[in-house]
Amino acid sequence: MAKIIVLAGDFPQCDGEYKQGTITLKTASNPRVGSNFLVSEFKDLKVENVDSNKNIKSAIGLGIAGAMLLGPVGAMAGYLLAGRETEVTFLATLKSGKKLLAATDSDTYRDIAARLHKKARPS
């Protein structure tokens, strides 16, 4: 299950989850179930922003391990070896006309886009 953060649009700001083509929004009034909708309900999907950041937990962990093994040089090497996380902010327009501005990781966005484009292709 992948995490989605709703930032704006016709839905309240909240956290959500994405699993196998279904997005579930967990609002404050209904944290367990919330609103559900399928990616197939999207009419349009557009990337608004892509942001790449160093994975802080990984950088700290590898930096400490490197420092323990090789001192300051190891700490720097550990930090440099840490992976990067890419966050994609996207705007989805549903067939009903509602809009959803949300952020998620790049792998989740790729899956959403692939499912939408797979549905849009003629058989």
Description of the molecule:
It is a single chain. This protein is of the alpha+beta class. It has one domain: PH-domain like, CATH 2.30.29. The protein is built from 3 helices and 7 strands. The two termini are 29 Å apart.
Task: Give a summary of the structure in a few sentences.
It contains 3 helices and 7 strands; from the N terminus they run βββββααββα. It is α+β, with helices and mostly antiparallel strands and 123 residues long.
Write the layout of secondary structure elements.
Blueprint: E1 2-9, E2 14-19, E3 22-26, E4 35-38, E5 42-54, H1 56-70, H2 72-81, E6 84-94, E7 99-105, H3 106-120
Antiparallel strand pairs: 1-2, 1-7, 2-3, 3-4, 5-6, 6-7
Helix pairs in contact: 1-2
CATH-derived topology:
PH-domain like
Distance between the termini: 29 Å
Q: What coarse outline follows from CA principal-axis ratios?
A: elongated
Strand content: 35-45%
Features of the shown structure:
single chain, 123 residues, alpha+beta, PH-domain like, 7-stranded antiparallel β-sheet, 33% helix, elongated
